[in-house]
């Protein structure tokens, strides 16, 4: 591989660039975090989740529940979950509550979960109104209980947990979105600093001269700051900027017209 195609990155220089632009990084982080907070708190509509749980037992041998009954109930929980989300159940809830949505829209707001190796079915409803979310979850459980009993001819559906009244919105998570916004701002500003550092190929110090040009510094001269006192041959295009001169160019510089507080580097 050609050595000219290899780009070397000095981690110490990168770290120094980050420290040198610390205020820029902090400003970007704070502004992005503030944006995430404002969007999540003022622009996004909060939604609430209410959850109810039920247990369905299939009795096969009289009134006593056997081990086979429990196994069968565990295997049938997925079938019960399908019935809970069925069109029959959800459309009845839509009619009872006069909801302004169709089956597909309401289906997206209902989440039915059947944990592995359990006979418990969890029904979660999401709504912008916490009271409505609770009422819908309880109503779905009641209608689904009747529907499951008729379809599978089970003895009963036991209530493991009534729907709760949520007090905190489930979405948006203001703290999380603020944190994500701050991290995104920090990453973006750090990327800007790093890209500018990698694309800057100018020579600024004598160390850069020795490192990149493989030349040694011979002497240093001041910068000409006042336009009226510039050198006629070399100063016209470099007002207020550091420039590097070869030793053969020293005769073109008028050393009496320069100030001693700003130096130029003379290289071989």
Which tags fit this structure?
alpha+beta, Alpha-Beta Plaits, 3-stranded mixed beta sheet, 7 strands
Question: If you had to describe this structure to a student in words, what would you say it looks like?
Answer:
With 268 residues, this protein is an alpha+beta fold. The protein has three domains: 10-43 and 173-199, no CATH class; 48-161, Alpha-Beta Plaits; 206-267, no CATH class. It contains nine helices and seven strands, in the order H-H-E-H-H-H-H-E-E-H-E-H-H-E-E-E. The protein has helices at residues 11-20, 22-43, 67-75, 77-84, 87-97, 103-107, 130-152, 174-199, 206-213, and strands spanning 48-57, 110-113, 120-127, 156-161, 217-222, 244-246, 263-267. A four-stranded antiparallel beta sheet has the order 2-3-1-4. It has a three-stranded mixed beta sheet with strand order 5-7-6. Helix 2 packs antiparallel against helix 8 (174-199) and helix 5 packs across helix 7. It is elongated, with a radius of gyration of 37 Å. The chain starts with 10 loop residues before the first helix and ends with a strand.
Furnish the topology, listing elements before pairings.
Elements: H1 11-20, H2 22-43, E1 48-57, H3 67-75, H4 77-84, H5 87-97, H6 103-107, E2 110-113, E3 120-127, H7 130-152, E4 156-161, H8 174-199, H9 206-213, E5 217-222, E6 244-246, E7 263-267
Parallel strand pairs: 6-7
Antiparallel strand pairs: 1-3, 1-4, 2-3, 5-7
């Amino acid at each position: 591989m050609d050595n000219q195609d290899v780009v070397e990155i000095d981690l110490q220089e990168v770290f120094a660039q980050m420290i040198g632009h610390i205020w820029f990084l902090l400003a970007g982080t704070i502004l992005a975090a503030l944006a995430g907070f404002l969007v999540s708190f003022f622009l996004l509509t909060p939604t609430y989740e209410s959850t109810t749980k039920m247990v369905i037992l299939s009795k096969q041998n009289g009134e006593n529940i056997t081990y086979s009954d429990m196994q069968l109930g565990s295997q049938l929980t997925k079938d019960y979950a399908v019935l809970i989300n069925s069109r029959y159940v959800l459309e009845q809830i839509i009619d009872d509550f006069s909801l302004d949505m169709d089956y597909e829209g309401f289906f997206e707001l209902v989440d039915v979960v059947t944990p592995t190796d359990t006979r418990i079915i969890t029904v979660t409803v999401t709504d912008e109104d916490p009271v409505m979310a609770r009422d819908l979850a309880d109503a779905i459980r009641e209608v689904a209980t009747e529907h499951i009993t008729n379809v599978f001819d089970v003895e009963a559906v036991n209530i493991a947990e009534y729907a709760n009244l949520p007090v905190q919105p489930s979405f948006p998570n203001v703290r999380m979105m603020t944190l994500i916004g701050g991290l995104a701002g920090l990453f973006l500003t750090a990327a800007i600093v790093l890209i500018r550092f990698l694309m800057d190929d100018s020579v600024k110090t004598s160390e850069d001269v020795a490192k990149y040009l493989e030349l040694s510094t011979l002497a240093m001269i001041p910068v000409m700051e006042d336009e009226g006192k510039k050198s006629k041959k070399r100063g016209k295009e470099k007002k207020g900027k550091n420039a590097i001169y070869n030793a053969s160019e020293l005769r073109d510089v008028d050393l009496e017209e320069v100030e001693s507080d700003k130096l130029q580097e003379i290289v071989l």
